[in-house]
Amino acid sequence: MAVQKRKYKKGEEISLLCFWMGGHRYATPLEYFKEIVQYRELTKVPFMSEWYEGVLNLRGKVITVIDLRKKLKMEPASERPIILLCDLPPYYLGAVVDGVDGVQTIYGNDLELIESPMHPGVTHRIEEKDRETFILSLSDVLEEEMKSHV
Amino acid sequence: MDDFEKELKTGFLDEASQLLTDAEGCFLGLEKNPNDPETLEKIFRLAHNLKGGSRAVGFMGMADFTHDLESLILKVKKNELKATPETITVLLQSCDQLRLMIDTLKPDFDAVVDVTEVLGKIRSLLGTAPVASVPDAVKPVAAPKKPSQPVATTQEEDSIRLTVGKLDDIINQVGELLILNTTLTGYRKSVKSPEILRALDLFSKTIGVLQDKTLGLRMLSLKATFSKMNRIVRDTSQSLGKQVELVVSGENTELDKQMIERISDPLIHLVRNAVDHGIELPEERLAAGKQALGVIQLSAYQRKGQIIIEIKDDGRGMNAKKLVEKAIEKGVLPQGSALEDDQAYQLIFAPGFSTKQEVSGISGRGVGMDVVKKNIMELRGEVEISTIPGKGSSFRLVLPPTVSIIDVMIVEAQRQRYAIPTYHVDGFVSTSSYLDQAESGVPMTLKFEDESVSAQSLWSILGFETSKDKIAPIAVIFRNSRQPFSILVDNVVGQQSVVVKKLGLELGAVKGVTGAAILGDGEVALILDCYELLGQKNISDSDRKPNGSSETQI
Q1: Which chain A positions have a beta carbon within 8 Å of B464's beta carbon?
Q2: Partner-chain contact B504 A55, CB within 8 Å
Q3: FRET label pair with B175: which of A26, A125, B404, B490, CA 20 to 30 Å apart?
Q4: pTM
Q5: What count of other Cβ atoms lies within 10 Å of the Cβ of residue B425?
Q6: How far apart are CA B69 and CA B121, in angstroms?
Q7: Which chain A residues have a beta carbon less than 8 Å from that of B459?
Q8: What is the ipTM of this complex?
Q9: How far is the C-alpha of B455 from the C-alpha of B443, rounded, in Å?
Q10: What is the pLDDT of residues B106-127, one digit of tens each?
Q11: Do B513 and A64 touch (CB under 8 A)?
Q12: Using the beta-carbon criterion (under 8 Å), do B526 and A43 form an inter-chain contact?
């Protein structure tokens, strides 16, 4: 049940959702997100890894929520974390991040491939005047998550 | 032909076309991926079910055809035959042939479809004797005859057919209404106006009625399912030279339609097994000092809100030692295994396990019992076995009455709420008099109706960090296991009906968690199976048997 991998073409216009984790700015194509939910107390699920946050009721649906920060071994650095609802068929789950920075549109050729990322899931980098953004492949992170689970 | 038989036959044909429609994708999938074991397994089961069903209702032509088809698929499955394009073509043609058969039989039960060509192909692949041509007297039917007049069904006027999907939508919405109702009831205290209070009461009452009615829509009696068994017992016992009487009771017990559909095949298997493996031959019975006539009792009843269907025979019973030997021989168990009797009985549910050597048309190809178990487990039910060698065996299907809504106790531990199916709970005890034993997280014992019951805090069972301050005040008692046990909770919030929601795929199966329920205030409560939960936690605990689940796990 592999999640589809996203490829980036050179001239392609890409809308990214940018968010903060562990003091770094990350971005993932907007198409993978369904909505943004304010963090709230979740129902814990027993016998799960530490980065497994729990389950959430979203309009009658029970949604699994993971803490993306803990998953990537980062210190949670926000008083008001945010849950990003990710739609990566077959998975549909919430991911907790420190905060959201908004939507940014870039072009495929702005992306700079990263050969040896600081942690799994980071595929590219965008270098701008005053900031650096890492493209995070949620599918890579999730695939790894599912593996470590089984 | 009496109406009953007609009904059976029509029912079977409807079911058969449904099965075929379901399997169509599999047949097509075979072309792309001829060796996919899952697809082959599905088709094999389809053929197996069609064989059994058609035999039971007396469509012998179809039964014979599917028997050969089943053998062919089995060969492919076992890799004795390569799934060449040629083989696949024959399989696809068989599918078409079955469809033609069903369509032809629908308006005319006595119609005979010429299967010579396809059957010949199957047999030549099997390497068995070619088919004798169809007797002259029987005219091959080339295409389904369209009845000159539409077959009128008597109730057409005052009933409507609707898809289960639509019904489920309604049931889900009613489920949401129930949640809403619980929310509203929670605000009762802050309501001052007597009019609104009255309206609230009426609202709750109406929703209760609505819930019963909507759930009732899906409820059917077991009558049709049970009466199918008469035929199966008769045919099976005749072909085996046995004398068997089927005694049926409780056939008016109602079950969810979906549930009935999904237990139909398992029941057929169990009943057939009872005749085939349970009841002895007449001479054997007489020699054992029994009546020549064997008795199978098929009964249904309610117990603590659960539906029990029991198949009980007065046959030879099961021999635990033999089962283990067989399992080792079949490679189901490693050499030198020793099992408790109860565990040995569960072996019959292992895939590929069948205690009969020869392939009879009745049972014994090793398809069946594992499917029985799987189907029942999928319905959140259980199969209990009890057997006395020489006296007979009994199989009990323990089923929840509906698939989607269950009655639960809401309990609280460390401010998290959990739902426990009410039928699991045997009682509550205050722990206040046991405070001297207390150190939370450490198992202790308490008394419930003069029985000694072990106790453990829910929070620690769930593996969450425990603060060692004080013992939780209420023990929830579970007695339906060899060792009664209890779990300690901070509070029992109450009892309510909840809609069972599945946990996301991301979670996979969490031990002891059967689903989730959304409570009145919108919070999610996990639905716990405490037997499974404790069974898991206590495995390392050598002086205590794993609770409850030991009866159902292999």
Answers
A1: 44, 46
A2: yes
A3: B490
A4: 0.55
A5: 21
A6: 10
A7: none
A8: 0.84
A9: 5
A10: 888 887 778 888 888 888 888 7
A11: no
A12: yes
